Amino acid sequence: MSKISLKEFKTILPYLSRYRRHYAVGFLCLVVVDAGQVIIPQFMRRAVDLIASGSFTWQAVLLYTGAMVGIMAVIALGRFLWRYFIHGSSRRIEAEMRDRLFEHLLTLSYDFYQKNKIGDLMARATNDLNAVRNALGMGLVALVDGSIMASSIIVIIFAEDARTAAFAVIPLPLITLLILLFGNLVGTKFRKAQETYSAMSDTVQETFAGIRVVKSFVKEWWFIKKFADTNDDYRKANMDLVKLYGFFFPLIEFLSGLTSLILLLAGGIRVVKSYMTAGELVALFRYFQMLIWPLMGAGFMVNLIQRGAVSLGRINEIMDIKPAIASPEHPAAPVPAPPEKSVPAIEVRRLDFEYPGGVSALKDVSLVIGRGEIVGILGRTGSGKSSLIKTFMRIIDPPPGTVKVFGVDVRDWDLSELRKLFSVSPQDSYLFSDSIKNNIGYGLPDGREADNVPLERAAEISAIDRDLREFKDGWDTLIGERGLTLSGGQKQRVAVSRALAGTGEFLILDDSLSAVDAETEKRVLSGLMEERERRRLQGLSTTMIIISHRVSTLYHADKVLVLDRGVIAEYGSPGDLINAGGFYARTAALQRLGEGIPLSGESGGV
After folding, report:
1. pTM for the whole structure
2. All domains in the chain, ordered by first residue
């Protein structure tokens, strides 16, 4: 076994330790099976010698036959048991590793998924884990079984007739060298095959995820060609492996056949000269036939172990990645609920942030948001609006001391506790392939509504309730992957409902009404204000942050922040900004605000 196998399989040791009893019982059954197989030729030798002597009785022959049948029954039971314990354990380990990989992937930060393709990750979680399971199952069986069988048979044949055995095993050293060479070649070629499979998976995932765009631009032919190219690369990589197997295994069989030929010549001469009996020659033939499996099994074992090592290496590459954003070792004490009124809900001080590659997103941003306030954010595309709110939840990591939530630096919060504070309707309105009810109730703990906005009320506020009445299955209407069966506006309103029904103390709407008409937008905003007032009367508060390109959406905000290339260009109430004559006022004029929206002097706060 090469160094890469030993190195990568160190990460499997905890799993093997946990299932050591299962493996121990399985290998014990395997030893019993091997012992039974080694004993059978001895009965064959005695039966042949008895028949060859001419002085035999059918009772004696039947006795040997019955003994062999009994041993074969034990072998059959042993084979069932070692398969149950060894293959069963490898399946359990595969399932645990897949769970652990999935759990680890969920801990990795936003930037990881920008660098790694989903198709490749899927390939590692399926094809690669299958290869690891085969290595821990049949690979270990071939290793143990081959070692026991080969060593036992070699000892027996030399004990039976050392001279004949010495001639017959001449091809074995060459077979051993070929097996070592085969193992190194398999590792290299299998890694290439797995990488091309990942590339093919990427192509499939991207094509089906963007099927609307593919069809609208009539680009099916281009993606068919792209898939055909990657599929052909995968075929070629696997054909390289097939050619290697096609050459190796027949060669091993040929060399193994030479041992039978040598045995026939050397053993036949010794039988003629009465140096050994016919039964002993038959037994030796049987042992040499049995020796073919350990020889073939060695190549089989090297193949599986090398495949498993390559695949495990690809999995370990992911498992070794540490989350770029994680909870501190000693998180700050939980903030009491409700926190002190004098403590700002969110405080931003001299925040600078740039993405990898030196792309600046925010420059010297300072902002204070009080509990229960509504803050609007306006700006051109790429001005840093979404980047700013991502720092609040540590989706991206702000510098230490620049962003505080309830007076505590976001980098000192336990990550899950921090993010529980926020209910977000994101810019892309991602929905799951599930019912509308489950999508809206996604953020609730165990499906409970607790003290939050009921699902029906959330649907009413977002105006998705009128659409539900038209759907045949209502709340149980299944939507396609990523909300494929809904319109853009419907997807946005389901996402808004999900945020409203969530458990967070902050409600963030990130350009969540861009795909709805003006009438629907007005209804949604009116519902939000009514819900805010209802919660205020109950002594509850929800701090709202609304990002929008529409000035009409920001009319109800207490304050509006205008960003330009990551810098605060304007900050104040909607009325003040209208009078200031800056970007906000120009945008309001260009959008020809509808009836009831003030254009001068009037405060927009509630």
Report:
1. 0.75
2. 12-319 (1.20.1560.10), 339-421+541-606 (3.40.50.300)
